[in-house]
Structures are given as C-alpha cells and as structure tokens.
Amino acid sequence: MRLRITDPTAIMVDREVAAIRAEDATGSFGILNGHADFLTALDISVVSWRDMDGRAGYCAVRNGILTVSGGKEVAIATREAHVGDDLDELETVVLSRYRERGDAERSGRTSATRLRMRAIRRMVEALQGGPAEIGL
C-alpha cells in the first residue's frame, strides 16, 4: 500500500509499505493492505511503518489527519513532520519540541484573547458612559 505524509511545505514520505502504525485520541492502531476506508485525527506522535523488505521507518507528526482510501492509499496531512531512523530520538527530542511549541502557541492565543476581551470591555464602558479613561 502507498503511504504519503505531507506537511505544509513538503512531501515527507511517499513510499510503498507493508504495514503502518499510528496513534489517535483512542490509542494506537495498525493498518494493513485492504484496510477499510478510515479517517481520524492524529495526536502528537510517531507514525511507524514496515517497508516491503521489512525495514522500519518512523516519522514524528505534530497532529494531523490520517485517511485510508480504497485499502491501498494512506495519506497523513500534518502541521509538522520529522522523518528519522532513531525512534528514541524522535520520541524524546522531536515530540517534546512539538509539545513545547503547542504550549507556547496556546499561551500566545490565551494572551491575545485576554487583550481582546479587555479592549472590548473598555469600549463597552466608554459607550455606556462609564470610566472616561480608555487605557489598555
């Protein structure tokens, strides 16, 4: 079956494989040739596969969507991917970096939301004849 992993800038993996292992919110699962059509959202995790000659391959993904089509095509679209041969490195270094970035993005969104809410409150106060100062 054909495995294709893409991020916004590149095709990271495009090869024939014998088996695939991935992880979503419900846990780890495997895909073999002939699998039923399938769609799931992936967590930050490592996708692994076995090439046709039995060699293992790995790709760390930062969330994403996995689809199985016609039992022969598996496509993963992810925000960020890193292909590597060393599973331990991918699990420790790359996944921790993905989680740190996710935490930083959440923190930034929270700060921006707080700033917007504060500005809206000030505008409402000004429109209702509340406090005269409009400083943020």
From TrEMBL:
SUPFAM superfamilies, alphabetized: Epsilon subunit of F1F0-ATP synthase N-terminal domain
Compartment(s) where it occurs, according to its Swiss-Prot or TrEMBL record: Endomembrane system
Source species: Sphingomonas echinoides
Keywords: ATP synthesis, CF(1), Hydrogen ion transport, Ion transport, Membrane, Transport
Assigned protein family: Belongs to the ATPase epsilon chain family.
Taxonomy, superkingdom: Bacteria
Described function: Produces ATP from ADP in the presence of a proton gradient across the membrane.
ATP synthase F1 complex delta/epsilon subunit N-terminal domain residues: 1-81
Principal location listed in the UniProt entry: membrane
Keyword Metal-binding: no
Protein name, entry field: F0F1 ATP synthase subunit epsilon
Topology relative to the membrane: Peripheral membrane protein
